Amino acid sequence: MNISINISAGSNESTSQIKIIKKAKNNASGLTFKYDGKNLNCEIVSDDSVSDNDQAESLRQSGHKLWNVIHDRKIKSVIFRSDIDFKNACIYLAEGLLLSTYVFDKYKSEKQDCHLKAVYIDDKNVSNENTSTLYKTVEANFIARDLVNEPPAKLTAPDLSKSIVSLGKKYGFNTTVLEKAKIQSLKMGGLLSVNLGSETPPTFNILEWKPKGAKNKKPLVLIGKGVVYDTGGLSLKPTTNSMDLMKSDMAGSAAVIGAFCALASMNLPLHVIGLIAATDNRPGKNAYAPGDVIHMFDGTSVEVMNTDAEGRLTLADALSYAKQYKPGLVMDIATLTGSAARAIGKEGIVFMGNADTKTLNSLKMSGQKVHERLVLFPLWDDYAEHIKSDIADLKNIGGVEAGAITAGKFLEHFTDYPWIHMDIAGSAFLTSEDSYRGKNATGVGVRLIIEFLNQISNES
Ligand code: BES
Ligand code: ZN
Ligand code: ZN
User: Fold this and answer.
1) Lower CB density within 10 Å: C or N end of the chain?
2) Residue to substitute in 336, 339, 349 for testing ligand 1 pocket (most ligand atoms within 8 angstroms of CB)
3) Distance CA 248, CA 227 (A)
């Protein structure tokens, strides 16, 4: 990100003025502005009769609209002021604006010019810490979006590992990459089976942030689905266009990587481990096939009924690997099922798990705060019946019903600790622009995880 965000005391008449004002009775909400050819004078109406979370989101949306005005007029700097009581109003407005500035133009000959260079906030209730947290969060979101937008041939599993290692060096978290030989000696049958049809070796990536004086004794583990491209394998994706977006099948791992960059740059006092099993899923001549029985890292045998249900196989090995850390909480995030996308659309995240109600609620509240909202699905025992196999311990798909849940139920088998699963299939990649979330990769999960980790570190 090339835009700086700073606290500014007093007026600065030479720059464009943006003021948040209270909504008057019967007054339309939105944005009005005057432009004199050089500077912009803009008023943004905020409605304080709605909940804090809704008010924050509507300010982010206004930030997005403001970005269009600023961008069209090639404005170089702006100063934000607030006339309303809502705390951090300028931060939410700036968040919507900054998130809207994202572009992925590395393969374009002509780069898009971003004229805006500085955002100043003149509000005594906003601290340097607030602006710095915002900057680092937006930067982390952009890192995730960049990784997801990268085309499949440019981001293979070894490429993803290279990115993880270089981001670890830049932001200060530790990284270990397990290569194919090591993965074979560990007998990670889920990851290795999915990789059989590929020309490119898999990798297993371990990220660690362990600051001195970490508040949690038992580490928190974040697991991201790292399928860098999903063709479906031999059960080739059946419906028109369904493969087009599958470079985004590593969006869960991108969210974990982005979150690690933020938590290291924010120096969050929590011990966090990240695990990413990375591979592509292709129908090569050695590819695993429907009917195969494979042996997972923890010894579970799985009858493969559909090679397109590959994410749960790679995640399951990472979930079993996590047991050695005796974690306090494990969270996985994955573009796991079309079923979750159909259930909730781009508007939300489906989640489930066996963590206690307090933890589940706390994550849900973090989701509402950052407007990456979660809906809880059940993991009732009955669903275990759906994934029983005639010849192995489990099969990798259930029936046509409850697909997001049977995938979650499959994952649950590999856990022996408090665990939460998030299915972001609906919200990770968009085919049309949606406000500050943009078009293509959204970086969903990054802001959610950062908010949740901040919450945990404040509580402990
Ligand atoms: N990567 C897909 C899930 C997906 C679908 C992500 C749409 C983003 C958008 C996953 O690997 C998959 O193919 N799941 C199958 C499972 C089925 C074969 C049981 C699905 O959901 O259709
Ligand atoms: Zn698949
Ligand atoms: Zn997939």
Assistant:
1) C
2) 336
3) 8
